[in-house]
Amino acid sequence: MLKTSLTATLYTALSLSAIAAQGADAVDVAALRADSMKKLVVHAEPKDTPSTPFMLQNGEEMTLAGLSDSIKVVNFWATWCAPCRKEMPALDALAKEFAPMGLSVVPIATGHNPIPAIERFFGDAGIESIDYALDPKSKLARDMSVLGLPVTVILDEQGREIARLTGDADWHSQSARDIVSALLGQSAGPEEQMPQN
Fold first, then answer.
1. Which of 2, 16, 135, 160 has its CA 20 to 30 A from that of 111?
2. Sign of the dihedral through C-alpha 131, 69, 60, 81
3. What angle is formed at CA 132 by the lines to CA 47 and CA 189, rounded to 5 degrees?
4. What is the DSSP letter of 185?
5. DSSP state of 36
6. Model-level pTM greater than 0.70?
7. Is-cis flag, bond preceding 107, omega within 30?
8. Which domain does 128 fall in, by range?
9. CA end-to-end distance (rounded Å), the chain
């Protein structure tokens, strides 16, 4: 009886410390928000994402959960959206810096976006580190409750939404880079922690 009670007490204490640690992680990331990243809403708990398919640049169908097993920055945008076009070079710079550490940056063109227009914009803007994806009927955007553009969501390793930013932002600002560094550091195993500067 004593052994069972001790085991239950230990289990409860471990569970509570795990919950406290998760809360601390969310608070730590929230504390890194500055300037345009202040609009980033960090969720207390990860939110499931829909299994609605979208199309990769190579024509393959994909879901948010199937993208990768690391942190993902998914940007809903359109060629006709001026704020979307303004922030894309910063997303490209973020991808260039953090892709070697496992970050995936996925801009999903939602609605009517002719591929020649996307490719012309990427060429003119010098976008080289990210590939576009397509949501031509805006089904994924609707299922993700994207009501305007741009909207950027950060997904964890399981494809669950952990943060969301509505509107444009400087995704290569010091604040954005600190947030991504923190998230990648939290997702790394004990032997894979990111090096400290």
1. 160
2. negative
3. 50
4. H
5. G
6. yes
7. no
8. 32-187
9. 51
